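Form 12-C: Joint structure prediction
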Amino acid sequence: MNKNLEIIRKKFESDNYAVSLGVALDELTEDTIRMRMRLRDDMLNWAGRPHGGAIYALADVAFSVLGNNTNNMSVALDCSITYHESPDPGTMLVVLGQTLSETRRTAAFLFKVYMEKEGDLTLVATMKSLVYRTGKPIDPDAG
Amino acid sequence: MNKNLEIIRKKFESDNYAVSLGVALDELTEDTIRMRMRLRDDMLNWAGRPHGGAIYALADVAFSVLGNNTNNMSVALDCSITYHESPDPGTMLVVLGQTLSETRRTAAFLFKVYMEKEGDLTLVATMKSLVYRTGKPIDPDAG
Amino acid sequence: MNKNLEIIRKKFESDNYAVSLGVALDELTEDTIRMRMRLRDDMLNWAGRPHGGAIYALADVAFSVLGNNTNNMSVALDCSITYHESPDPGTMLVVLGQTLSETRRTAAFLFKVYMEKEGDLTLVATMKSLVYRTGKPIDPDAG
Amino acid sequence: MNKNLEIIRKKFESDNYAVSLGVALDELTEDTIRMRMRLRDDMLNWAGRPHGGAIYALADVAFSVLGNNTNNMSVALDCSITYHESPDPGTMLVVLGQTLSETRRTAAFLFKVYMEKEGDLTLVATMKSLVYRTGKPIDPDAG
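Section 2 - Result
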């Protein structure tokens, strides 16, 4: 068992923003993550479609967890998101993330957000993200 | 008076996501926007800091309004955000946006998000965004 | 045989910039591309390392070809590139590209640039790109 | 006089890639830069238009100089470029860059590329960029 994964899994439970959005963590490994979020009515924009900010929010929550799974406090530097298609209100969004590269002080990640509908996954957005690793432990007592 | 600005101003009032975040529209012109949002406790991440997704949300709400101020239904293609500094919980965020360029079918925008504290503005994030203009009127009865 | 692929393959031969950089097209399909370029001395920066602009150039040449492989004149809207590692001077760079999504008027692509060294591929950069499709044929006589 | 600016000015003279592109440095301060480059025939793409990679190259050369003007060896992490308009072959491109933010280990910059034609500047591209500062001096003998 990887202690560092347990540390961020535990921390994630107290993430107010993720809780308020209803984001659930399905799977976390050393270099991948899978999360999901139901698109609620309070996430719709003025056109009655799921807001780009809500789609981004799911990817960003996944980024925050995957980017902090080495017990090394990391801060977001940059995210670039492309929107491929507008998901339907009320559907479930699923995000799959993976680590692209790591150096001592920075790391890059790729996230794909899908709409899940009748068992099919449709690509909704792709996000490329960067963190800076501060070098401070998230849990000073671990290890 | 610019009718197109009134159309999107009115629409914005029924933006569920913006309402749930508490975003207020201060100013909208043909090529600029100013909005603000108080950083609430439900916008904090597991480290107790304002979530990157909440900062993005404010910029994205401004993008949605500025990008749709020509009575031409526009959809987000891409957003790239750089985080400069972590704002303090409880402070007010202010976003200033401007149009960079427009063609018949696409438009580009730049947004700067600031933390307002004791009268000073500190740069928190910069976002560069693109829309595709569908050519359909937001309000078919206007003009 | 796909006529549209032949049209852009042929056009690519007269791409001055690609010729001056020495970019070679290895493979082009309806949704993937593979190209390569040797890192020459005239591509080094002041620190004696391959210039970021040269690495981008290879990815961008691939983008220009893959983004125009449907006989629909397409123009670049946006590219976002992350640099993972500095490749060694004199080595061969290989770029692999794939189409992420397409609508009638826009399309998104992902490119990964690798350094090839002693048979191994090391990830050097990742680029996410967007085109706008003008709707004009590249070869009006085709089809 | 700022010694750090002199260090990178001097280094820039031996930048092979910048020399091969014909990039000239007009002005460099602690937080701004101005450079220019003539769009040559060998920078055209298969459609006979200036290649996106050549436009990026100018912005990236400016990034490399402005990002290294503190005698702190810095490496590119990420660049995001939006293309607003296709410049005319043979015209002069001008890039204006500014520092957006700096921390001890990272810095962010914004670059605007213009086409200069009959005395007018037309916005061609906007680039947002990030460096990681290694902490190693560019000139160990300075200071």
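Section 3 - Comments
Chain D has a mean pLDDT of 97. The first strand of chain D starts at residue 24 and ends at 28.
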